Amino acid sequence: MKAVLFDLDGVLYQEGRAIPGAVEAVAWFRRHAVAHLFLTNTTSRPRTALVEKLDSMGIPVEPEALLTPPVAAARWLAANVDGPVALFVTEQTRTEFAGLPQLPADAEAGAAAVVVGDLGEEWSYPRLNRAFRLLMADPPPRLIALGMTRYWQATDGLRLDAGPFVAALAMASGLRPRVFGKPASPFFQAALDLLGVEADKCLMVGDDIRGDIEGAQAAGLCTLLVRTGKFRPVDLEGDVRPTAVLDSIADLPGWWQSSGF
Fold first, then answer.
1. Is residue 240 a contact partner of residue 213, using CB atoms and an 8 Å limit?
2. Are β-strands 66-67 and 35-39 bridged in parallel, bridged antiparallel, or unpaired?
3. What angle do helix axes 185-195 and 69-80 make, rounded to 10 degrees?
4. Is-contact 137 112, C-beta < 8 A?
5. Contact present, 86 and 114 (Cβ < 8 Å)
């Protein structure tokens, strides 16, 4: 192993607080000069907010060390789509798309691309139906998914993420989404390219058996599942087998050393 990809929510922090040992674990990898990057499917907040949140927990991170779906999607749209984009993301996340022409919030036609992220409680039937109407144009716009994560762990329990809404729009419109974020292999490849390492020399650390572990394995990475965040014991009974399973990120430095990396 030459590099590590860290998921954020459920791995480094949970319910707004750093998981015990997370600060020390990240510091250990920095101290030993192990290449690493922070990966997240969070689309409800821009990178600046994530940097501030991590810093408040004692985990200083440069924005360039954070790979998020909005950043990756905005770069792709700028290079590949000519026309306005319809954004179904939070107001904060819109800042990541500031350089792109944007469709008015009430328009139901004229989009070159429809971008769907995690809107949480801001979703409503009229808003979802507006996205559907935009996608039914002739010719149809591109359907851009900022990740296909099914759900996440909130303070009050599990909550739906962007994936189910993208799936509903894809089914209704008949369009295939272009996915930016986990579990899409191109998202993991983008991280590998930034680090300059081969897939089999990189470890993905996550709490989501599908989005983190299965997705990373499909991209050729080694994987480590932690029993925090959205982890459930039933995750170990399915067809996805991580390289290793640890109680939490706090155990990672010791496991890394004992594995001879």
1. yes
2. parallel
3. 100
4. no
5. yes
| Contact predicate 35/4, CB 8 Å | yes
Give per-residue pLDDT as tens, 142-172.
999 998 888 887 888 889 999 999 999 999 9
* Max CA distance (Å), the chain: 58
The residue length of the chain stands at 261
| CA atoms lying within 13 Å on the CB side of residue 33 | 0
Rounded Cα distance between 183 and 181, Å, is 6
pLDDT value at 52 more than 90: yes
Looking at residue 222, its pLDDT comes to: 97
Q: Tell me the β-bridge partners of 85.
A: 102, 113
- Between CA 58 and CA 63, with CA 194 as vertex, the angle to 5 degrees is 35
Q: How far apart are CA 13 and CA 193, in angstroms?
A: 26
Query: Residue 180 contacts by C-beta under 8 Å, 6 or more apart in sequence?
Result: 69, 70, 72, 73, 76, 144, 145, 146, 147, 186, 187
Q: Whole-angstrom Cα distance, residue 165 to residue 57?
A: 31
pLDDT in tens, 74-111: 888 998 999 999 999 999 899 999 989 999 999 999 99
Three-state DSSP state, 9: strand
Q: How many CA atoms lie within 13 A of 178 on its CB side?
A: 16
Q: What is the Cα–Cα distance from 222 to 202, expressed in whole angstroms?
A: 6
Give the pLDDT of residue 138: 96
